[in-house]
Every structure is written in C-alpha cells, then in structure tokens.
Amino acid sequence: MKLPLTAIAEPATMRLISTAYFKPPVLRPLVDTDEELDILAEIEGLTSRRLRAETSGVGALDAREMIFRAWGHTYINAAFAYTRAEGNRFNGGERGAWYCAFEELTAIAEVGYHRSRELTRIGRFHDEAIYQSLLAGFIGDFHDLRPAAKPIACLGADPAMAYPEGQALARALREDGARGLIYPSVRRAGGTCLVAFEPHTVQNVRPGARWKLIWDGSPEYTVTTD
C-alpha cells in the first residue's frame, strides 16, 4: 500500500496509562544505601520486561533502541517492551509501540473501548478506572492513512479481522524505515491517532490530567476528571 507522508509538529499528543503504573520508584524507601538499591534493582530485573529490554533487549526490541536520562523514559521503554501475545492494531506480540491521540476525547474513547471489552469478557459492568495522561511531542514526516478514499481493512472495528492487517502494514512500513503512522480513530468519529514505531521519535514526555472512567451496570461509561 502506497501511503502519503504528512509533516507534523504536534507538541501535546495524549496517551493514557493506568495510574497503577504512574508512580515514583518504589525501591528507594526500602533500602539505606545505593549498594542495597542496586541489589534490589537486579532482583526486580528478573521479572521486569522493561528492565530486561533496557539491558539485553526482548523479542524484536534491541536494547540500543531504548531511551535513557529523560523524564518519562521508563514509560516510553515500557510501551515498546510490554506487548499482548496477539499484539495490537499496528504491532505484533514481539514488539510494542507508542499509541497516542491528537485529542483528549479520542484518547479516552480508545482506552474506554478496551476496558469495556475486558468487562464484556467477564460479564460485569461495574468498575472504576483512573488514567494518567502522558503528553508527548512529535515532529517530522509520518505515513498517513487519513486521506484514503475507500475503507481500509486495518481500520476495521473487529480486532480479530483488523489487527492482522494492521500488523502486516506496520511491518512493511518499518522495513522501509517509517517512524510511525497517523490514522483516523476507530473508536471516535473524527478523532486522530498516531502510532510511533521507534522509541526515539517520542519526545518531551510529561504528565497531563487524570481521568476517571466509571461503569455502572452497562457498557456505557461516564468520564470525570480525577
């Protein structure tokens, strides 16, 4: 598929993560010296996929691609290190990607859909989830699916059908050196999403607002700031 390139300068795209993963380092209060901290960090590294990615790489992710010494580098690296076995729309199970949206409501709609999907699997729609927004800047040329004149298989609503198509497209683009892909949101009409294929393209990560999503007996949820 021949895709056009679009030059962008987006200073504040939004990615939402669970507040369970947004917290200061938890090991430091447990020890008295840096030597003890190193020992605990080594133990943590045995189970942390992100730490293993940063030291030796995991799956199709090379340790030399990881980001260091910048605020938010752990969140960037985690996005690429942790994957679902079946992958997502534009990444397989061997390598993650950084997904974000150009608008707050689009980012909320994307995470809300996936949370509702999980609740559907267990048949219980009573839940609260708090998400921390991570703002990030992107600049440069990105391949763009928005100008497509006809429906594209990878943008289908059913993950079982669309994700394999999107993963194949992303692999082909990465082999050609693409840094990422802009695409219309599948979960919010008129919204725009971006997926970054390489950690170094994610710039100036910093925290934004917090959002609470509440399910009260149905797949429809309400949204408030937390």
Give a quick set of tags describing it.
seven-stranded mixed β-sheet, about 230 residues, single chain, alpha+beta
What is the element layout, followed by pairings?
Layout: E1 5-18, H1 34-45, H2 49-55, H3 73-81, E2 98-101, H4 104-122, E3 126-144, H5 159-175, E4 180-184, E5 192-196, E6 203-216, E7 221-225
Parallel strand pairs: 3-4
Antiparallel strand pairs: 1-3, 2-5, 3-6, 4-5, 6-7
Describe what this molecule looks like in 3D.
This protein has one domain (5-225). The protein is built from 5 helices and 7 strands, in the order E-H-H-H-E-H-E-H-E-E-E-E. The chain has helices at 34-45, 49-55, 73-81, 104-122, 159-175, and strands at residues 5-18, 98-101, 126-144, 180-184, 192-196, 203-216, 221-225. Strands 1, 2, 3, 4, 5, 6 and 7 form a 7-stranded mixed sheet that branches. The model has no long low-confidence stretch (mean pLDDT 89).
State the gist of this model:
The chain is an alpha+beta fold and 226 residues long. 28% of the residues lie in helices and 29% in strands. It has one domain.
